[in-house]
Amino acid sequence: QVQAVESGGGLVQAGGSLRLSCTFSGLTFDAYPMGWFRQAPGKEREGVSCINWTGGSTVYADSVKGRFTISQDDAKNMLYLQMNSLKPEDTAMYSCAARYSDCVSASPLTISEYAYWGRGTQVTVSS
Q: Would you give the end-to-end CA distance of the chain in angstroms?
């Protein structure tokens, strides 16, 4: 059974930084493209970023380009999202996910393309 667990969320002031972490179990970590998604209260879940295997290509939503960085450490089975220059509109529940197919060439941030999901970690950015 595949499980994903996120950590690193919290309360931060606007302009601050957080690093989210996600660990997967039950799958061969470096065989799956992975992504981060978020869902704010009253809004639909949206894609934030994806990465195609270690050191592979990445995709970012326009709203986070230049501020967020996705990475992974295969030795530790960890996926990360470094979030800098946080804004109140970044407040959301952040979840990690894994998929079978290349996340850059087609539908990189389409929710239905992702097979495995964590429950999320809350990020709150105060103004």
A: 40
Q: In sequence order, what are the beta bridge partners of 72?
A: 79
Q: Which of 2, 18, 7, 58 is nearest to 35 (CA)?
A: 58
Measure the CA–CA gap between 54 and 31, rounded to whole angstroms. Answer: 9
| pLDDT tens, N- to C-terminus, the chain (127 residues) | 999 999 999 999 999 999 999 999 998 888 899 999 999 999 999 999 999 976 689 999 999 999 999 999 888 889 999 999 999 999 999 999 999 999 988 899 999 999 999 999 999 999 9
Q: Determine contact, residues 40/92, Cβ cutoff 8 Å.
A: yes
Closest CA to 47 of 60, 57, 56: 60
The token duo for 3 is: 């499980």
CA distances 65 to 49, 74, 94, 101, 115, Å, are 9, 24, 16, 23, 25
Tell me the C-alpha to C-alpha distance, in Å, between residue 102 and each of 22, 71, 80, 117, 124: 19, 16, 18, 17, 31
